[in-house]
Write a structure and sequence with these properties.
- By secondary structure, the protein is α/β, with parallel strands linked by helices.
- It contains 9 helices and 6 strands.
- Helices cover 56% and strands 14% of the residues.
- It has a 4-stranded parallel sheet with strand order 2-1-3-4, with helices on both faces. The protein has a two-stranded antiparallel ribbon with strand order 5-6.
- The chain starts with a strand and ends with a helix.
């Protein structure tokens, strides 16, 4: 039997911070040790949305390709593997047919065992998804209220702005920096090289995730125009 771990985070920022990935890895290794099955390989999808079916993710697909009868997949939660009910049902059926078990550290039963275990796993996944959706609804409602009052909505200020009380204030000189980023991006310069170049030229610290976010926001604004 081979023991395979799978960990995932949704955003590039989480992947760069590494905290969530590190925590998941520690949990999985501990789970394997308690089960007496040394971890054979860890599959890591960093910055990959759960909306993408498991088999279509870079490492999710590699995991499914590596599995053989008698193997076991370890994950912290079902939502690291699946977010879609359809993906859950199709993939769990496939794993069960191939004789592959699933172990989850949050107490969710192995859905490949069928019967009540599968029903409970599906119900628990459904409740978790409902709670995430409700948190999103409540968060958006709060942000909409702040926006209506003209107040800062929290989170990191947009590139080129700083927070002053409840307001966002443009930082002087950032138009030139933004223009330079666009110029370098148009020339095919990598995000890291853009960040290093702008930081050196303007004497400020700019990271490549910041460059990436700025360019994505700019592209989205262009598409909406």
């Amino acid at each position: 039997m081979a023991a395979y771990g799978y960990i995932r985070v949704s955003t590039d920022e989480q992947a760069l911070e590494g905290q969530s990935l590190d925590g998941q890895e520690r949990t999985i290794r501990s789970l394997c040790e308690k089960g007496g099955a040394p971890l054979s390989r860890l599959f890591v999808d960093a910055g990959v949305s759960a909306k993408i079916p498991l088999r279509d993710r870079p490492q999710g697909g590699a995991l499914l390709a590596a599995l053989k009868s008698g193997d076991k997949v370890f994950a912290t939660k079902l939502d690291r593997l699946f977010r879609s009910d359809t993906d859950f049902c199709v993939t769990v059926d496939e794993l069960a047919e191939r004789g592959v078990d699933v172990a989850l550290s949050d107490g969710t039963p192995d859905p490949t065992k069928g019967g009540m275990a599968r029903i409970l796993a599906l119900v628990m996944a459904g409740f978790a998804r409902f709670e995430r959706e409700m948190i999103g609804v409540r968060t958006q409602a709060g942000m909409d209220e702040l926006k209506a009052k003209g107040r800062y909505q929290g989170g990191n200020p947009p590139f080129g702005f700083r927070r002053e009380g409840d307001a966002l204030v443009p930082i002087p000189g950032f138009d030139a920096i933004k223009g330079r980023i666009v110029e370098l991006a148009a020339a095919g310069t990598s995000l890291r090289r853009i960040a290093d170049t702008v930081s050196a030229e303007h004497g400020i610290k700019v990271t490549h995730p910041t460059v990436s976010a700025f360019l994505k926001d700019r592209a989205a604004e262009g598409d909406a125009a």
